[in-house]
């Protein structure tokens, strides 16, 4: 059993990042909070259907109650829309926001942990160093890694209203790149709890409800896996194609195929920009001229040939790439060999994008 006051206290932990960081209780958004039929029932009121943070706030409210309740407590969050001012006719949100973006490219893999986010972040920085206007959307709502990898944790993206009264989120800018991640809206180390459709909506918002303005490249760091979420993401965001990341192990073949198939799924026929072979060889810090091909040489090249797609680049396995990721200083900012590898990758991606 819980009282309304107890539930409201828990919900005071949920801050609306777009409203001067006030909590949802003070903002009057909690219309109903009670323990009923063996579960906690909450109703959140939104001034408009298009609050870009709606999915985030619903997830956070649920998480706040679960965190502060005995294990096994069930939580149900409903939402209502309360128009405050006279409802303005708002055009449907979405694709026109991306109208000024020339190339939208998914960074994908068939398997987790192959270095997708590392490649995505460094490719973004390297493209920016080549003079392109670049944005990166972190579509991994379960394990967003962009804030840490770019040293932008703690940034609070602002929500603004555009000329038509729609709410848009402003991306965070650093290293010449515009970054957006659901990670900016959660406390570090605090896992967000999503149900399938919510996760899907939240990540679409991270792409579609962001004021990217004019960009040459918008990279989308895809979440691990190749499930329904991915296919729906590729269908609903006008992605031109994909860069597939893999590691050289022979087992990766089947994974690459899964990654490629996401973009060549029934009714989806997107361009495969090509393959990136990450961890192609190992170079120890103290022997910078040595290359150890732990899993054999030219695995990436053979794989690319097999799928009939270009090999865009090879990235070595080096300690400095991992450290750069952990410290928020992407390797692509440097002119070390690993930085040079990302620059070469950026040029290959850009060249491929200019082919029709
Ligand atoms: N070339 C590399 N050299 C050294 N470390 C690397 C390299 N690529 C990735 N890593 C490290 O491997 C780990 C996993 O990388 P990353 O998070 O980029 O993978 P991912 O494919 O995005 O994972 P997930 O599937 O969980 O999203 C990180 O600690 C990262 O720093
Ligand atoms: Mg990742």
Please, could you describe this protein's structure?
The protein is an alpha/beta fold. It folds into two domains: 4-81, GMP Synthetase, Chain A, domain 3 (2-Layer Sandwich); 95-354, P-loop containing nucleotide triphosphate hydrolases (Rossmann fold, 3-Layer(aba) Sandwich). The protein has helices at 4-11, 54-67, 116-129, 146-149, 196-208, 228-236, 252-263, 299-307, 319-327, 337-354, and strands at 15-16, 22-23, 30-36, 39-46, 74-81, 101-108, 134-138, 159-161, 167-169, 172-174, 177-181, 215-221, 241-246, 271-282, 311-317. The strands form four sheets. The protein has an eight-stranded mixed β-sheet, sandwiched between helices. It has a three-stranded mixed β-sheet with strand order 3-4-5, covered by helices on one side. Helix 3 (116-129) packs across helix 10. The N and C termini lie far apart (62 Å). The structure holds adenosine-5'-triphosphate and magnesium ion. Residues 116-117, 140, 145 line the site of magnesium ion (MG).
């Amino acid at each position: 059993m819980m009282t309304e006051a107890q539930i409201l206290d828990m919900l005071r932990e949920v801050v609306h990042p777009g409203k001067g960081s006030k909590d949802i209780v003070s903002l009057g958004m909690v219309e109903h909070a009670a323990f009923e039929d063996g579960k906690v029932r909450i109703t959140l009121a939104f001034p408009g259907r298009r609050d870009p943070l709606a999915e985030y706030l619903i997830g956070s409210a649920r998480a706040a109650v679960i965190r502060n309740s005995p294990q096994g407590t069930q939580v149900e969050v409903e939402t209502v829309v309360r128009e405050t001012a006279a409802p303005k006719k708002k055009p449907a949100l979405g694709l026109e926001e991306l109208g000024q973006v020339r190339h939208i490219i998914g960074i994908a893999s068939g398997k987790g942990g192959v270095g997708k986010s590392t490649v995505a972040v460094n490719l973004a920085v390297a493209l920016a160093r080549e003079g392109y206007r670049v944005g990166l959307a972190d579509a991994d709502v379960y394990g967003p890694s962009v804030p840490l990898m770019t040293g932008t944790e703690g940034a609070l993206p602002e929500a603004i209203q555009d000329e038509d009264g729609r709410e848009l989120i402003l991306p965070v800018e650093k290293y010449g790149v515009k970054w957006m991640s659901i990670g900016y809206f959660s406390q570090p180390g605090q896992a967000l709890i999503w149900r399938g459709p919510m996760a899907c909506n939240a990540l679409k918002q991270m792409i579609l409800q962001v004021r990217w303005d004019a960009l040459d490249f918008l990279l989308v760091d895809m979440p691990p896996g190749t499930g329904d979420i991915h296919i729906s993401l590729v269908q609903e965001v006008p992605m031109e194609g994909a860069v597939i990341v893999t590691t050289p192990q022979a087992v990766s073949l089947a994974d690459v195929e899964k990654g490629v198939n996401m973009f060549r799924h029934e009714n989806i026929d997107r361009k495969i920009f090509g393959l990136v072979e990450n961890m192609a060889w190992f170079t120890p810090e103290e022997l910078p001229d040595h290359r150890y091909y732990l899993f054999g040489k030219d695995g990436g090249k053979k794989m690319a040939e097999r799928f009939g797609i270009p090999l865009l680049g090879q990235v070595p396995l080096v300690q400095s790439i991992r450290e750069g990721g952990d410290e928020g200083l992407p390797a692509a900012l440097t002119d070390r060999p690993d930085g040079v590898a990302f620059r070469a990758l950026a040029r290959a991606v850009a060249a491929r994008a200019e082919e029709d």
